[in-house]
Amino acid sequence: MKNLKSVLISFSLILLMSCQVATNNEILFNIVDYGAMADGVTDNALAIKKAIDACVQSGGGKVVIPGDGVFLSGPFDLASEMELHVEAGAVLLANPDTSEYTKSAFRENPGEGTIWIGGENLHDVAITGLGVIDGNGIKFMGEELEDSYELLPFEVKDPRPHVLTLVNVHNLRIENVTFRHSAYWTVHLIGCDDGVINGITIDNSLKIRNSDGIDLDHSKNIRISNCNIKSGDDSICLKNRREFKEYGNCENIVVTNCLMSSRSCAFKIGSENMDTIQNVTVNNCTILASNRGIGIQNRDEGVVQNVLFSNIIVESRFFSDVWWGKSEPIYVTAYRRANIDHKDASWRFPEGATEGFVGQVNDITFQNIQCRSENGIYVSAESKDKINHILFDGVSVVLNRVTDYEGGIYDRRPCEGEGLVKAKTSAFFIDNANDVQVRDCDIRLGANPPLNMGDLIHRTNTSIPGTKIR
Fold it and tell me: Are the C-beta atoms of 470 and 442 separated by less than 8 Å?
């Protein structure tokens, strides 16, 4: 019996050890083992590439940026069945040498930045950890101005690197890691399908223009949750860029439990939209100290439809004309794009066209939203048929001045015609729209109301059935 008991115990230990192996069989590839140095000076791109190659050759695994050090690196690409893990205490820092960045972030359009961390046509990719991925953004800027940095001139290629650009990636996970100091867009997902972005922090300089937080471009089935995003430009933006038209709609997007702050628009749909953006829910979010809170900015032939915003707090204020927006807590517009001479003007219109047209914005709901702002909600289109079926249900607007800007202005940029429109401040300014319902909404004036107050609800060429103000 004693021998049988010993055999059983031994067998149990073997099973336990077998389970531990089965649950801990992930292969680790520490970049230090491939020559990386955490001195903040040595370019470790080659060492990182060697670690990724070894990971690929072994059939997948985890490439580790180890803690307690600054690893400088030029551009590199991720691979399928790979997890890039940035340990707590580790900083992966972009090389500030502009000559290192040669690949355009927008294919044949070189005028809008380059790629630092990239990847294309991949599956089963993860970026995780409690460490930091630092775009070194200020190193790519010019002189610091009062509310922004001057952009350095360039001839053809804008060398400013986007931090992360992933194209056509299926089954993507980005969790917990901190991104900071991007010189251009931070996380750009193009044609990606089935992605989770959870618990990340994006901490960009509020003075760096174009420093978007997360851009979903022609991407589908993406969930963003529990994120803290501070960005000079849009915090989260959905779009359909013309350079990637083969990937179709941007759709089936869920955003929840996020904290956002932006000198442009905290959550935006547009302005680039040559296809359809649809089936979007944004819930349980807080927007603080932003130029514009929630924005739908259609400027191209694409359609925006079936969008629900609910349970959101919005705090917006004025900033200078450098930034798009004029403290509109909610903004829904449809205007064709201006035909101007710009560094990327040839990519703004359909191929062969010298001017564009704008598609419709349909079936948008704003429910249980609290707004504190220096300006009111703005709904406006170039013609009445472009905006249809907008519902404001249980939306409160408290108008209160917190800056010295005069106000009495709305921002339609970029559009054909007048970009900055002077008008009296209203809690709801609705111009050229079909079926806009304002139901059970609350309007109040704060201790310092706007200097240029007009009607609480301004309507021009607009049908507003069922209006009910508390």
Answer: yes
Helix, strand or coil for residue 247? Answer: helix
What is the full DSSP assignment across 190-243?
A: ES-EEEEEES-EEE--TT-TT--SEEEES-EEEEEES-EEEESS-SEEEEE-GG
Check if the beta carbon of residue 172 is closer than 8 Å to that of residue 194.
yes
Contact 73, 115 (CB under 8 A): no
Write down how long the chain is. 470
Residue type, 429: F
Q: Which of 354, 334, 327, 344 is nearest to 410 (CA)?
A: 327
- E strand intervals along 31-185: 61-65, 69-73, 76-77, 82-86, 90-94, 104-106, 109-128, 132-134, 161-175, 178-180
3-state secondary structure of 184: coil
For tokens 């294919």, what's the residue?
107
Ramachandran sector of residue 270 (left: φ over 0; alpha: ψ -120 to 50; beta: rest): left
For residues 27 and 447, give the distance between their C-alpha atoms in angstroms, rounded to a whole number. 61
CB atoms within 10 A of CB 5: 9
The DSSP bridge partners found for residue 270 are 297
Strand partners, 301: none
Dihedral sign computed on CA atoms, order 29, 31, 32, 35: positive
Q: How far apart are CA 449 and CA 374, in angstroms?
A: 8
Residues 6+ apart with CB under 8 A from 230: 202, 203, 204, 206, 213, 260, 261, 262
* pLDDT for position 157: 94
Q: CA angle, corner 183, sides to 178 and 184, nearest 5?
A: 95
261, 204 in Cβ contact below 8 A? no
Express each pLDDT in 175-231 by its tens digit: 999 999 999 999 999 999 999 999 999 999 999 999 999 999 999 999 999 999 999
**Rounded (5°) CA angle 237-321-156:** 65
pTM of the model: 0.93
CA distances from 51 to 75, 233, 292 (A): 14, 34, 43
How far apart (Å, rounded) are the C-alpha atoms in residues 321 and 327? 11
For 300-358, the pLDDT digits (tens) are 999 999 999 999 999 999 999 999 999 999 999 999 998 866 555 567 888 888 788 99
For the record, the structure tokens of 145 come out as 């101005």
- Spatial distance between the Cα atoms of 183 and 317, rounded to a whole number of angstroms: 24
